Amino acid sequence: MRLEAENAVLRHQLNVLRRKMRGRVRLTNDDRRFFIQLYRWFPSILQVLTIIQPETLVRWHRAGFRCYWRWKSRPVGGRPQIETELRVLIRRMSVENPLWGAPRIHGELLKLGFEVAQSSVAKYMVKRPRPPSQGWRTFLHNHASDIAAMDLFVVPTVGFDLLYGFVIVRPDRSDLCVPKTLSELMT
Q: What's residue 13's pLDDT?
């Protein structure tokens, strides 16, 4: 397979030389693509190149790689920009009407003839600070009498029997609740 690739490169170089006019060899983009693709498949063709330098072929390959990733990384657009006046209007409506959410403001803007998405309205509304929620210490203090932690575990004995253990711990009491019967467990 490698030998066939080298033969194809040599034949192609001869065809290019036949097309040659006076001066430098004129390679088309198709010629460059052909050499680059064969180089990608069979890097050993660098040894048989005669009409171009091996460094030139590697440089073409790298340039093609850069062009591909530049094309792949280009900005492809996105949501169209909203005019400054519309952003100011959205902010003003959200400040003057604190009970209105994005759906209501969006509806009012549609009535006024503005074509804007509801998600854009929500993005440009004034963010109101939320009241702070209680911390863990306050939560545990308020609900400690209603919280219980429990665990069920199995202990193998020396005689290879299994003992089942069930433990309930309540944070509001320092003692350990160990039910003696199933009816105590349900209460």
A: 82
What does the alpha-carbon distance between residue 59 and residue 43 come to, in Å, rounded to a whole number?
14
Residue 102 pLDDT greater than 80, yes or no: yes
pTM greater than 0.85: no
3-state secondary structure the chain: CHHHHHHHHHHHHHHHHHHCCCCCCCCCHHHHHHHHHHHHHCHHHHHCCCCCCHHHHHHHHHHHHHHHHHHHCCCCCCCCCCCHHHHHHHHHHHHHCCCCCHHHHHHHHHHCCCCCCHHHHHHHCCCCCCCCCCCHHHHHHHHHHHCCEEEEEEEECCCCCEEEEEEEECCCCCCEECCCCHHHHHC
pLDDT at 43: 85
